[in-house]
């Protein structure tokens, strides 16, 4: 096994590295044998094994437009003709463009390499997106040197998103949640991590449009709309998960009572002790308010003003 | 960056080592499963409800010619949730994908109902049904069972073609059907029945667009049509209760009406030097012309003729987004975002006779309220790298909403935030974000019914109310040793509604997450995490509408711990083992203050325990055969007194007899993968 993990002498600073890389492009010193120069070390036994790239499209020499149909490894990593040369004591190995969150290369510059091919219609909004703003490199989520990028598999994608978005990841373990836990759905079913014009990087233009793309029966227009529903589904629901049924932010009837205290209904704080001390009440258990007002998302019935029809 | 390739001698680039790991890349996997439980909760999470022995197939088959490739991906064929995809592409020329997917959700499968035909749009009782006054008199033993289940099946065709250099066109078509039974309640006056209601819907989406990319940006135009149809206009049920004074013998509920949404959008991006501009404009309309149901099916009611046949609903939408960033120098950039959304509901206002649950026709009429709103949001932020490893972000945003027919016509929310982030040495990332928001608006004027109109108490609906919001989020990740990564996240959020006397007055949410990943050996890694979250909601109300006489504190806490152990390259690089464990405990309490009586009581409202263990072993048996064994075990129980009732516990509510989920379930899978 070849040890490609090196003891780091005094590292470059980001500015020094940036200047060096720019100079290397000016010099245009590419490897004499292309990828073969690199793969002598970065082979299957190496800790930095790069050969997985040949199991995915990036390493396909026959498909036009791939890195390996062009400058091979150096299509992405830049000219690295001296990288394989012996390193003298106290000197640095010739640097190249490296990727990932631990790379010293400026994130925008790392990502510009990927975007030079992948700035398609799904990634038109990358610039100014939340992840771009946070300087998240493409390679902190995606893996190119593997047979299949984990982000393409729902369960692995959810875990990867959750490595930063911890609160949202843990929410899928709650009592009610969308089925993300074992990969029946993925974060990218609702969000576009590459940026969108919508709030929260949603795939559709608003929260409601995103919810309605699957729950279309709630879209309307309806004769009797419920105002907070028409305005924003997240007024009542937490889409990432909740301890309450139906992803509700608060248990009913309290949730309903936060807005409704009609004079002809009992306005009482109801708890389990009311269950013990009184006969069971339709105002409290089961679907409580929704025992009667079952169409809280709106109704199209001429007699549906109070969402009972 | 100019690649500067003039010195390359490409003829020497033989790429001798450029070999895939396997000469054969086509995989077919046959999985044999055994599941000992078919309850809905586990089935929804695992994507399959079959109990006992089952089998499913995965496949990944690819062909490549010069320049073009075709891939077939198949996942879980034979299970309830299935995915098939065929994709063919030629780089810089075309791409087409055909996809088939099912996504089912399951509920309780032994729900009780007196109806003979659960899931029908006309729910009938047995001919010899004897109406009774209260649920406890109903013959539960003779009830039928039904399963709550919603099956989604969708087809998706996507095609993209490069028309000219930098210019492509695309078309998408997606058709989804949704069928099944969902429990919904129906009432006749105060008598309620939980009904096995039908779901039989179709949603077709069509999208057409074109993208043109040029050196400094791009232009995209897109048209989208979404067409929703429902096979059921209504559903009718016979009341199992005896006739009460003024009550009906049967009820009729509306279902989701057929409707359409059309949208056209234009996207433009432009970049030049350090300036980046993106914008999107969208115009759309939602329409609905479903024929109205009659006021009631109750022939005993004397009702006027409706002077309109359908809603002729129409909502126009207009949205604009502008996002710009400018990099003043390498350390400082400014950003600007503007969002505009207008929902203009042009649906007419009609007067309808006021009819209550097929039973009472009041003299008055009621009018619909076609809600319109306009939302504008603007934010400005500055990002300054004050040293090579540290950034300071400051921002301000203003969010204004204008509405009609609501208690408050305008709200304005302003947010200020600051975020510092840095990394140094073994600290991979440290960030701290603090924000403060203030929301107020126009005068709050109560509308009828929703508020205690006879009192002077201030009731503000929480989504319209004056609000102060404070949020803090901190994050630290570090590597104390080469093989150990540790991450800590904490968050705190508090909403205060100081102008509210009745309604939600306070909300607090905070949590902490600690996680670590340890490389025990080169091929063995262990990760563990703990997440704790607490959430409190304080609401107030008034029984007599003279003063606040009750207050509830609804407190939730969730504790989650987990462990993941992965060992690969075992047994001569052939074996990979993985263990995943997760335990989650949730508790909900309510503390009630009955202020006038000076009484305080605390009750446990719900408890949820969920644990799972997942074990997986993958073994490369030969260059052509892989073996895989997996076990998933889940233990789950939920106790929520709201759901813990028998069908006849409530005198006027006929339930379905289902309570919380409480199960131990195991799924074993053994798979053989063949490569060719």
Compact overview of the structure:
With 309 residues, chain A is mostly helical. In chain A, 27% of the residues lie in helices and 0% in strands. The radius of gyration of chain A is 28 Å and the shape is elongated.
Can you walk me through this structure?
The complex is a heterodimer of chains A (309) and B (676). With 309 residues, chain A is mainly α. Chain A contains 12 helices and no strands. The longest helix of chain A is centred in the first third of the chain and has 14 residues, at 14-27. In chain B, the strands form 4 sheets. Chain B has a 26-stranded antiparallel β-barrel. The longest helix of chain B is centred in the N-terminal third of the chain and has 7 residues, at 40-46. Chain B contains 2 helices and 34 strands. In chain B, 2% of the residues lie in helices and 65% in strands. The radius of gyration of chain B is 31 Å and the shape is globular. The interface between A and B is large, with 127 and 184 residues.
How would you describe the oligomerization state of the chains in this entry?
heterodimer
The biggest chain-chain interface is: A-B, 127 and 184 residues
Question: Runs of chain A with pLDDT <50, length 5+?
Answer: none
Averaged pLDDT of chain B: 93
Structural class of chain B, by secondary structure, is mainly beta
Q: What does the overall shape of chain B look like?
A: globular
Largest sheet of chain B: 26 strands, antiparallel, barrel
Strand segment tally of chain A: 0
Give the CA-CA distance, first to last residue of chain A. Answer: 72 Å
Rough outline of chain A: elongated
- The amount of beta strand of chain B, in percent, is over 45%
Determine the strand fraction of chain A and express it as a percent band.
under 5%
Helix count of chain A equals: 12
Reading the helices and strands of chain A in chain order gives HHHHHHHHHHHH
- How many distinct helices of chain B? 2
Write down the Rg of chain A.
28 Å
Q: What is the helix fraction of residues of chain B, given as a range?
A: under 10%
């Amino acid at each position: 096994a070849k040890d490609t993990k090196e003891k780091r002498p005094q590292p470059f600073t980001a500015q020094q590295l940036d200047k060096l890389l720019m100079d290397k492009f000016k010099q245009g010193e590419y490897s004499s044998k292309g990828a073969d120069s690199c793969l002598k070390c970065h082979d299957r036994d190496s800790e930095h094994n790069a050969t997985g790239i040949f199991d995915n499209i990036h390493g396909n020499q026959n498909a036009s437009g791939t890195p390996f149909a062009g400058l091979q490894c150096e299509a992405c990593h830049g000219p690295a003709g001296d990288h394989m040369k012996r390193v003298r004591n106290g000197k640095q190995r010739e640097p190249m463009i490296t990727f990932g969150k631990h790379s010293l290369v400026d994130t925008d510059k790392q990502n510009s390499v990927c975007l030079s091919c992948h700035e398609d219609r799904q990634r038109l909004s990358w610039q100014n997106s939340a992840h771009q703003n946070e300087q998240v490199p493409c390679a902190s989520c995606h893996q190119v040197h593997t047979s299949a990028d984990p982000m393409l598999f729902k369960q692995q994608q959810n875990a990867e998103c959750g490595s930063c978005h911890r609160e949202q990841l843990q929410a899928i373990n709650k009592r009610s949640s969308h089925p993300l836990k074992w990969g029946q759905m993925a974060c990218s079913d609702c969000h576009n991590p590459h940026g969108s014009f919508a709030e929260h990087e949603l795939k559709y233009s608003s929260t409601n449009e995103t919810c309605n793309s699957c729950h279309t029966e709630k879209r309307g227009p309806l004769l009797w709309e419920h105002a907070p529903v028409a305005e924003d589904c997240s007024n009542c629901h937490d889409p990432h998960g909740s301890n309450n049924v139906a992803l509700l932010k608060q248990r009913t009837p309290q949730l309903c009572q936060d807005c409704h205290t009609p004079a002809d209904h009992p306005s009482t704080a109801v708890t389990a002790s009311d269950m013990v001390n009184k006969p069971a009440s339709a105002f409290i258990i089961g679907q409580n308010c929704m025992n009667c007002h079952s169409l809280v998302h709106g109704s199209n019935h001429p007699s549906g003003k109070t969402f009972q029809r | 960056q100019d690649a500067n390739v003039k010195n390359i001698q490409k003829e020497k680039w033989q790429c001798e080592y450029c070999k895939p790991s396997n000469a054969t890349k086509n995989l077919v996997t046959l999985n044999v499963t055994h599941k000992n439980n078919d309850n809905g909760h586990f089935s929804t999470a695992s994507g399959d409800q079959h109990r006992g022995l089952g089998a499913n197939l995965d496949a990944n088959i690819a062909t490549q010619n010069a320049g073009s490739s075709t891939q077939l991906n198949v996942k879980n064929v034979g299970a309830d949730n299935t995915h098939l995809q065929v994709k063919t592409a030629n780089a810089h020329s075309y791409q087409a994908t055909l996809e088939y997917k099912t996504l089912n959700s399951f509920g309780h499968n032994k729900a009780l109902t007196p109806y003979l035909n659960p899931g029908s749009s006309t729910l009938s009782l047995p001919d010899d049904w004897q109406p009774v006054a209260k649920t406890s008199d109903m013959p539960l033993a003779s009830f039928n069972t039904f399963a709550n289940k919603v099956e989604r099946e969708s087809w998706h065709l996507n095609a993209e073609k490069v028309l000219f250099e930098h210019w492509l066109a695309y078309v998408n078509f997606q058709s989804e059907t949704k069928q099944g039974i969902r429990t919904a309640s129906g009432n006749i006056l105060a008598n309620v029945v939980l009904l096995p209601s039908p779901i039989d819907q179709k949603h077709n989406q069509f999208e057409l667009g074109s993208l043109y990319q040029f050196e400094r940006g791009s232009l995209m135009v897109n048209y989208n049509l979404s067409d929703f149809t429902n096979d059921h206009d209504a559903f009718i049920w016979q009341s199992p209760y005896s006739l009460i004074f003024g009550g009906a013998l049967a009820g009729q509920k509306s279902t989701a009406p057929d409707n359409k949404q059309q949208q056209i959008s234009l996207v433009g991006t432009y970049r030049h030097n350090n300036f980046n501009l993106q914008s999107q404009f969208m115009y759309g309309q939602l329409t609905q012309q479903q024929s109205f149901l009659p006021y009631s099916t109750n022939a005993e009611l004397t009702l006027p003729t409706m002077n309109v046949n359908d809603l002729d609903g129409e909502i126009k939408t207009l949205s604009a987004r502008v996002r710009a960033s400018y990099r003043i120098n390498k350390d400082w950039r400014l950003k600007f975002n503007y969002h505009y959304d207008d929902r203009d509901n042009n649906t007419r206002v009609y007067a309808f006779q006021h009819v209550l649950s097929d039973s009472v026709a009041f003299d008055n009429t009621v009018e619909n309220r076609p809600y319109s709103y306009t939302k504008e949001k603007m934010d400005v932020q500055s990002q300054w790298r004050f040293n090579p490893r540290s950034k300071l972000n400051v921002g301000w945003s203003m969010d204004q909403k204008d509405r009609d027919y609501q208690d408050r016509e305008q709200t304005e929310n302003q947010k200020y935030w600051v975020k510092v982030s840095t990394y140094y040495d073994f600290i991979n990332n440290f960030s701290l974000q603090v924000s403060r928001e203030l929301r107020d608006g126009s005068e709050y004027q109560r509308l009828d019914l929703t508020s205690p109109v006879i009192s002077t108490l201030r009731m503000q609906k929480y989504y319209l109310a004056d609000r102060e919001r404070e949020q803090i989020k901190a994050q630290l990740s570090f590597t104390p040793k080469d093989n150990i990564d540790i991450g800590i996240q904490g968050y705190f959020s508090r909403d205060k509604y100081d102008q509210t006397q009745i309604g939600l007055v306070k909300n607090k949410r905070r949590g902490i997450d600690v996680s670590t990943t340890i490389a025990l050996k080169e091929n063995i890694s262990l990760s563990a995490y703990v997440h704790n979250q607490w959430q409190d909601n304080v609401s107030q109300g008034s029984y007599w509408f003279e003063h606040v006489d009750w207050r509830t504190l609804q407190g939730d806490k969730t504790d989650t711990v987990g462990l993941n152990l992965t060992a690969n390259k075992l047994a001569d690089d052939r074996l990979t083992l993985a263990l995943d464990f997760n335990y989650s405990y949730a508790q909900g309490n309510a503390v009630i203050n009955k202020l006038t009586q000076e009484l305080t009581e605390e009750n446990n409202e719900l408890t949820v325990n969920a644990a799972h263990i997942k074990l997986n072993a993958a073994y490369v048996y030969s260059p052509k055969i892989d073996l895989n064994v997996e076990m998933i075990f889940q233990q789950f129980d939920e106790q929520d007194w709201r759901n813990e009732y028998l069908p006849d516990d409530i005198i006027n509510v006929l339930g379905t007899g289902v309570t919380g989920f409480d199960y131990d379930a195991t799924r074993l899978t053994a798979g053989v993968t063949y490569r060719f």
